[in-house]
Amino acid sequence: MTLQLYRGDAYLQQASATVLAVGERGGIVLDQTNFYAAAGGQPGDKGSLAFAGNACAITTTVYDSTDKSRIVHVPAEGAPRPAVGDKVTLSLDWPTRHRLMRMHSALHLLCSLVPFPVTGGQIGADDGRLDFDIEDAGAIDKDVLSEALMALVAADHAITERWISDAELEANPGLIRTMTVKPPMGSGKVRLVVIGTEGCIDLQPCGGTHVRSTGEIGRVAVTKIEKKGKLNRRVRVAFV
Q: What are the helix and strand counts (H, E) for the chain?
């Protein structure tokens, strides 16, 4: 099992760990990590592992396909690999991770402004998108959404978290906005991302990394609203 340090501190840029396994393809499993494993539309982290005078570039981080409790750090082709039992120091590509955190939080704000079910989404370091189940294309407006987004950013609402049980989430299905991505359940508890006092801006299950307040997001704008099927509207957000 890999302890997910980013759950406790999304701002942890460096960490120490011990190598538990190195797969046939070179994927490295550690006892703990500050690297986020790709999930929920957020890409896996990249960075480097330092060990015994060597540096191993990590191109992405994913969950083990056969054991979701283990996180695999994928090394660059030709990079030196540590051995099982080695002590390593993990260093995030922090500029990229921080931009992903900012964009992820921005998409939660967008979700709070568009009162329709979410059918998909993707988070990038420069832009992101959410797809909504909307029949009426005129129900949302690019300029209106951009102005509302920046008002929420400027208000500098706190972004925190709290945990509820799987049973509590099942008893409150309205907390789930996504139609295609299931909240991370199965451990007995579910993490809620809380924006604003008592979630007055947004409150929903999420396993991703976020900034500490909406003011940290910076300037963003809705750049495009696309029709992706009869009921699907794709809303794109970018840093400006």
A: 3, 15
